[in-house]
Amino acid sequence: MGPVNSGRNRSVPRFCSKRPSRNRTSLQELTMADLAFVVATIAVFALVALVAKGVTKL
Fold first, then answer.
1. How far is CA 30 from CA 17, 24, 34, in A?
2. Could you please report the per-residue DSSP string of 3-56?
3. What distances in angstroms separate CA 15 from CA 11, 18, 58, one per listed residue?
């Protein structure tokens, strides 16, 4: 009997350095995420201001 793993194709490396990484995000994606965060923060502060204005009228 031969080795257990003798049938595997060893010519292809397990981790190839030429493969693109799937974890990379582009600069445009990061910029859009930052912009969405700023817009959401401004919207929350505007909503709090409207609620505070409504409470003062009571």
1. 25, 11, 6
2. -TTTTS--SS-SS-TTSPPTT---HHHHHHHHHHHHHHHHHHHHHHHHHHHHHH
3. 12, 9, 66
What's the rounded Cα separation, in Å, for the pair 56 and 48? 12
pLDDT at 24: 78
pLDDT per residue as tens digits for the range 18-45: 655 666 789 999 999 999 999 999 999 9
Q: What is the Cα 29 distance to its own chain's centre?
A: 8
SS3 2: coil
Which H or E run contains 57? helix 27-57
